[in-house]
Each structure stands twice: as structure tokens, then as C-alpha cells.
Design goal:
The chain is of the alpha/beta class. It has 14 helices and 16 strands. Helix content is about 30%, strand content about 15%.
């Protein structure tokens, strides 16, 4: 077979010109802009994540430069993100007004249906239980609107990953009433991203025993990189030095992921079953979730770098106590998220949120480690949005903690607060936030701004035009 760029890409499951090597092309195409949604369950009390500087009024709009701050100046919850301060945009006082004006507007009930859609939801006459599917959005989420706009024919329009989400009840909606299924393990994501590549074969379970039929089949199956090794070597003689380095980088990333998913890499924390493609994590408090998120991050970075897809989401359900070092025997939801004024519970929810910040920081490092042809990084050309289905105080949606990271058009390196919202959100604000006297701008305007960054000429996301005296139409100010 002739040694061509297309042959190598076919063998890697990257056909369609997805691995861009400038020295094999006539003209360098524009580097694509990508979108990653990092979505987490529960929130943190406002005092754990808000940041303040001397002399700035609570009742007036203000902002300050994150680049000039020491790590100790960052709030407890956001400290793990300090190293990326020049690529952060922390937004303070946005509200999910679309949820607040609907019946019984609790975070866990209406939050997932409105967070990225800003649409009314259909309750079907029943109150949603956590993980249930009785509440459905009546419109698509903004990421899917963007995916429709920037998707490339023949490639994945988007990829949805997650952990422990019951019944796939997430925040991603393809259309009215249609939430997208969530891939729950890195192994499943690998198979979705690279269906033409050779799947990592199983290693025997730790209990030992004679090899099974599946084990024997897997033992005879060459890995995707073993199969293409000679082609890689031949192609390396045909490209520039910089492209050779890029090709080697992608080869190493693929090898690392193969070893990790097959359990053959350092730690060997999982094995693969040929008949059931599910990653089985080794025992240990917190280990499984950390490994899973690390795997999701690596796969997103690889997918973006190879241009397999340009839109992705990572959705996480509530963490277990052991995942963030909480006190044993406590229920995260009932004993801690419903914290009231208990100082210890408030502090633990800060640690909970800090753990999510550390998880996001790990993903940002992976995106920032991959160089684009022009010397920028994948992170520089990706808009990353971290948001929660509910906000402060407990499950209210009047104060959402939202962080934008990366690049892609917004003016980064800033903490931006909108004045006029209640400065200290607490129990007195109302059980679900619907009785707050002063709320910040609707986050639906942030969704409009996101859509515009990806070329959508729109002035509204969702079907709600105003809520609580605030307009939901138009882009959010002060982002650019």
C-alpha cells in the first residue's frame, strides 16, 4: 500500500484530514475554535468562591485583574485555578432567571433543563427526583446550537462524557425533550472517537486463572500503533521537523491512552472485557473518579487536536465523600449540601468545590500542553465553560458560580462582578432564590455571547425574553 497521509489517518481512525500537518498541505487552514462545557452538580456557599478587592463597591459594577493576584488572594474554591489566571474570566452575580420564574424553581429540578437552554421546561405533572427524567427542556442547549454551526461533515458533531449521571439526565439537549446520552467511561469515549482504530484488548482480571477465549483473541490483536509503526516511520521522512514533532506527539498520546485504557500502563488500575466495553476501576477511595476525569481530559485534548470534534462536554454528578476528603459516614446531599449556617458544612462544601476546580485545572493543563501549528495551544483556541446546575446559597439559582477559561475571543484574566445583586446570599434570600430582591443579569445573555463567538447571528437563546425584571435578550456586557 502506498504511504500517504490519508492511509495513516485511516489506520488511526482520523480519516478526513483531521490531523493537520502543514508541510503536507498547500495552504494552512485556520485553526478551529472549540467549545468544552465542564458541568458539575451542587454548588458552594457564596463566601467560598466570591473574591473581593479593597475599595470596590458591592452595589456597583466592578472588575479587577486576576493576573496581578497572588494565589493566596484567590478564593478557597478557585485557588487550584490560579496558575491559569491569565486565561480565566470569573463571573460573579449571574442568575439563572429562566429557572427562577418557573414553577417550584429548585436547582436540581429545573437547573439541568435551563442551564444551557434558557427555555421553559415541561414538568409532565410531576416533580423531578434527582436523576429522574420528568422535567424536560423545551429547547436545545447552546452547545448543540454551536455544534450545528461549526461541525464538520464526516466528523463527530459533539461528544458527551460524564460520571454517575442517573438515567442520563444531564444538561445537554439536542432538541426539545431530547437529552443526549452520556458516555460514562474513557473506554467508551475512546471507542466513539476512534471507531476504526484497534480497541485495547483485555488483560486478565487480578484473580488470575487460565486465559478465556476473549483473552486469547485479544492477545492476538495488534494495537493501532503497532499496526501503523512502519507507516509512521516512513511518513516522518516526508514532513518538516516541526510536523515530525507534532506527529510524534500524537503517536505518543495515542499510545498512552491505549496503555491506560487496557490497564497495561503505570498503575494498571483497570482491565477491559472484550464482550462488555466498560472500564473497571481498581478499589480505593477517590481513585476511580480521578482516573476517569483524567481520561476524559486526555481524550478531549486529543479529539480537539486531531479535529475529530470541536464541541465536547464533561458532566459530573455529585462526588462521594471520599472523592474530596469529607467526613466518613455523611451524605453529601442531605448532610452537607443542605448546610444552612453550619460553619463546618459550609467549609466542607468549599472543599467539595475546590476539588472540582482542581479537576478542571488538570483538564486545562492537558489542553494547554498541545501546541498548534502557529505556536498557540489548544487551550488558547478553546472556550471552556465551568457551570453548575444550581448556585448559592444551597440549591438556589440566583447566584451561579461560572468560570470561563481558555481563549477564543473574550477578554481573559479578569474577575467581573455585576453590582445591584444581593452581596451576601444566605438563607434569608428565600428557599430557592425566587424571593431575592436583587439578582444579577440572566446567564442566558452569556449563552448569547457564547453563540456569537462561534458565528451564530442570534440575539436570544431559549424562549424566555425577560425574568424578574431583567432582560434575557442580547449578549452579556463586559466580556470583550
Amino acid at each position: 500500500m502506498n504511504m500517504t497521509r490519508r492511509n495513516v489517518l485511516h489506520a488511526l481512525g482520523l480519516a478526513g484530514g483531521s490531523l493537520y500537518l502543514p508541510s503536507l498541505t498547500q495552504a494552512a487552514p485556520m485553526i478551529p475554535k472549540r467549545l468544552l462545557m465542564f458541568l458539575t452538580w451542587h454548588s458552594s456557599p457564596y463566601q467560598n468562591w466570591k473574591m473581593r478587592r479593597p475599595g470596590l463597591s458591592e452595589n456597583a459594577d466592578h472588575e479587577f485583574d486576576l493576573k496581578a493576584l497572588a494565589q493566596a488572594d484567590f478564593s478557597m474554591a478557585y485557588q487550584p485555578l490560579w496558575e491559569f489566571r491569565s486565561k480565566l474570566l470569573i463571573l460573579d452575580a449571574l442568575s439563572n432567571a429562566a429557572n427562577l420564574i418557573q414553577d417550584n424553581p429548585q436547582g436540581h429540578n429545573g437547573g439541568p433543563a435551563t442551564l444551557l437552554t434558557s427555555s421553559t421546561y415541561d414538568r409532565n405533572g410531576a416533580k423531578m427526583v434527582v436523576g429522574g427524567t420528568t422535567i424536560k427542556s423545551t429547547g436545545p442547549s447552546v452547545d448543540q446550537m454551536i455544534a450545528q454551526r461549526i461541525g464538520v461533515a464526516g466528523r463527530l458533531r459533539s461528544i458527551e462524557m460524564g460520571s454517575n449521571l442517573i438515567d442520563n439526565y444531564g444538561c445537554i439537549w439536542q432538541a426539545a425533550g431530547q437529552s443526549l446520552p452520556i458516555l460514562r467511561t474513557p473506554a467508551q469515549v475512546w471507542s466513539r472517537l476512534f471507531p476504526n482504530g484497534t480497541t485495547p484488548g483485555p488483560t486478565p482480571p487480578p484473580t488470575g486463572g487460565p486465559p478465556t477465549r476473549d483473552d486469547k483473541i485479544a492477545a492476538g490483536r495488534a494495537s493501532v500503533l503497532d499496526f501503523t509503526q512502519a507507516r509512521y516511520a516512513k511518513m516522518a521522512t516526508k514532513v518538516s521537523a516541526s510536523d515530525k514533532q507534532r506527529l510524534d506527539s500524537h503517536r505518543q498520546m495515542l499510545r498512552d491512552l491505549e496503555l491506560r485504557l487496557s490497564g497495561a500502563g503505570a498503575g494498571g488500575s483497570a482491565y477491559y472485557s472484550a464482550s462488555c466495553p466498560t472500564m473497571v476501576a481498581s478499589p480505593g477511595a477517590g481513585t476511580a473518579l480521578r482516573d476517569k476525569i483524567d481520561g476524559f481530559g486526555k481524550l478531549v485534548s486529543l479529539a480537539f487536536a486531531c479535529d475529530v470534534t470541536r464541541v465536547a462536554s464533561i458532566q459530573l454528578d455529585k462526588m462521594a465523600i471520599g472523592d474530596f476528603g469529607g467526613p466518613a459516614g455523611m451524605d453529601v446531599h442531605q448532610d452537607m449540601a443542605h448546610h444552612g449556617t453550619d460553619a463546618q458544612k459550609i467549609m466542607m462544601m468549599g472543599k467539595y468545590y475546590q476539588t472540582h476546580a482542581a479537576q478542571l485545572a488538570g483538564i486545562l493543563r492537558q489542553l494547554d500542553a498541545i501546541r498548534e501549528p502557529d505556536g498557540t495551544t489548544v487551550l488558547d483556541n478553546t472556550i471552556v465553560v465551568w457551570a453548575n446546575e444550581c448556585g448559592s446559597w444551597e440549591h438556589q439559582t440566583a447566584h451561579l458560580p461560572i468560570v470561563v477559561a481558555g481563549g477564543g475571543g473574550f477578554k481573559m484574566g479578569r474577575y467581573v462582578r455585576w453590582g445591584g445583586a444581593d452581596p451576601n446570599v444566605g438563607v434569608g434570600g428565600g428557599g430557592n432564590g425566587e424571593r431575592y430582591q436583587r439578582i444579577g443579569p440572566p446567564h442566558s445573555r452569556l449563552l448569547v455571547s457564547l453563540a456569537r463567538q462561534f458565528g451564530l447571528d442570534i440575539n436570544q437563546v431559549g424562549n424566555i425574553t425577560s425574568a424578574k425584571g431583567q432582560t434575557c435578550v442580547g449578549p452579556l456586557d463586559r466580556l470583550t
